[in-house]
Amino acid sequence: MKTSWRTASLVASAAAVLALTTACGQETAPPATSQNVGATAGAGDVGAIGAGQASGGAQASESPSDTAGELNVSTDAELGKVVTDSLGLTLYRFDQDTAEPPASNCEDDCAKTWPPVPAEDATAGEGIDKALLGSVDRSDGSKQLTVAGWPVYRYVKDVNAGDVKGQGVGGKWFALNPEGKKAQAADRPGLSTREDPKLGEIVVDKNGMTVYRFMKDEAWPKPVSACTGACLEKWPVVSPVDFEDTKGIQKKGYMTFTRPDGADQQTINCWPIYTFAGDKAPGDTNGQGVGGTWYAVRPDGKPVGASEK
């Protein structure tokens, strides 16, 4: 098996961390039997979710679709192959469900946000193995489509064909690939950058979540975090990431430090870094400018839209 570019020598990593540690002082800067439905009758007219237009000019209805129609495979630039319904709307799976045996744990309000996909008319289109299609009985007596045992859902915020706004929501919802597995982005480094349409080049973690700085923190002569207690519930710290597991991040001042609570935190250019609990999916930047003290981070550690103190 090829050695991943992520793999790094422990000895080299330890030496790198030791060397970087001195930089700050010197630098400034839920069960049922699944039934096969793969050979069911052909798809009828299909509605869409939410409001707006689906691709091909189909008008999206104001309620979830009552049909699935012919399932197909589309290719997302970041996630690769994902399963879609006959309108091209992305289909999802939920980590709190089970596939063996198939069971859905998304009810009530959850099912309003994540409408279960009906099984009755689902058929396998090109790229879909009909043997993987099945159904599970929900608590209301309806039959929900399963793929490889996993109950299948749509996401109300996906309005147009190709939308994948449900990907990674809450760290529990993922687009389905044709094998019923999670469609996930190709391996990302522990820290890397992306080009945000509004903020420019910013740092993201391995899940694609935006990384932030807190303007009340300190970097010199050593990193000090002013985010403690309840603050950490909203702004989780970024745990140590080996520099060999980064891409596009400045090396100078790249170090970790030990917080008063005993946890180690990563820095960029000696500045402590965090993610934001209010960001629900990769690409979100809901933490930008919060309280006038939280800002996304450039690859050199500078805050986006704020002046250094």
Instruction: Return Rg in Å.
Output: 23 Å
- What's the helix count? 3
> Beta-sheet strand percentage?
15-25%
Oligomer: single chain
The structure class reads: mainly beta
Low-confidence stretches: 1-22, 27-33, 39-64
Gap from first CA to last CA = 48 Å
Shape: elongated
Major sheet size, sense and barrel closure: 3 strands, mixed
**Total beta strand runs:** 17
The level of helicity is under 10%
Strand and helix order = HEEEEEHEEEEEEEEHEEEE
How would you portray this structure in words?
With 309 residues, this protein is mainly beta. The chain is built from 3 helices and 17 strands. It has helices at residues 10-21, 109-113, 231-234, and strands spanning 70-76, 80-84, 92-94, 98-99, 102-103, 123-124, 133-137, 143-147, 150-151, 173-175, 191-196, 200-205, 212-214, 256-258, 264-268, 271-272, 294-296. Strands 2-1-6 form a 3-stranded mixed sheet, with no helix packed on it. The chain is elongated and about 65 Å long. The relative contact order is 0.16.
Secondary-structure blueprint:
Blueprint: H1 10-21, E1 70-76, E2 80-84, E3 92-94, E4 98-99, E5 102-103, H2 109-113, E6 123-124, E7 133-137, E8 143-147, E9 150-151, E10 173-175, E11 191-196, E12 200-205, E13 212-214, H3 231-234, E14 256-258, E15 264-268, E16 271-272, E17 294-296
